[in-house]
Amino acid sequence: MKDLPFSVYDFFAYLASGFVVLLIGGYAFDIDALPEKDASSVLLLAWVVTAYVTGHVVAHLSGSVIENGLVRERLGSSATFFASVLGWRRVLFRSYLEPLPGRVIERVLSRANTSPDASLFFHCWAVAKRDPVAFGRMNTFLNLYGFARNIAMACALGVMLLTAGALRPFLDGGSPDARKQWLIVPIAVIGLVMFYRYLKFLRLYAVELYVTYAEQEPG
User: Fold this and answer.
1) Which tens digits make up the pLDDT trace of 184-213?
2) Is residue 12 in some structural domain?
3) Within-domain flag for 53
4) Domain with 190 in it
5) Helix ranges, the chain (H)
6) Which of 40, 92, 127, 186 is 20 to 30 Å apart from 196, CA to CA?
């Protein structure tokens, strides 16, 4: 494994989501691009590189659409964990938006001597990363939430590809492809589940960071 050119994050965040989009897109448009069992190493390498590049595109989209557009602008950044949130966000995303324990909030704000804003996260991160155990756990949660976020985006793209593929026969005067229409539902469900998994691991990352910061001795 140490000789592989890809890190754990490369696999979780890029390769997996890239393969998902390529496989769904190939099926949606009836493209038989899967390498055969005895495919040459060059073809296999081309597949891996294509999936890796596609995964980077998916990651860029998921960062812009899901992380920045939906979570930060609609649900709130990690500063949201310092106060109760009401309304539709509380109903749909209760587990993600649950405030940190009061004692943790008190210790973090007292030690940082600032309000819960974006700068607080970076300040706490700079301190918490000095703890190797906590930083290792944070990196694990980072890999997991990056994977879940990108797979959620890949599923969203897959739904669009399947919809276009299912409607192609209809545009040519035939009937929509029922097999592809039925596949849209499970892909959408998987995408929704992975979005909630993304929120779970994103919260665990923030909780690990703030609790570590709160419990470290000033130094």
Assistant:
1) 999 999 999 999 999 999 999 999 999 999
2) yes
3) yes
4) 8-27+39-215
5) 8-9, 16-28, 41-62, 88-92, 94-97, 102-112, 118-128, 132-171, 178-215
6) 127
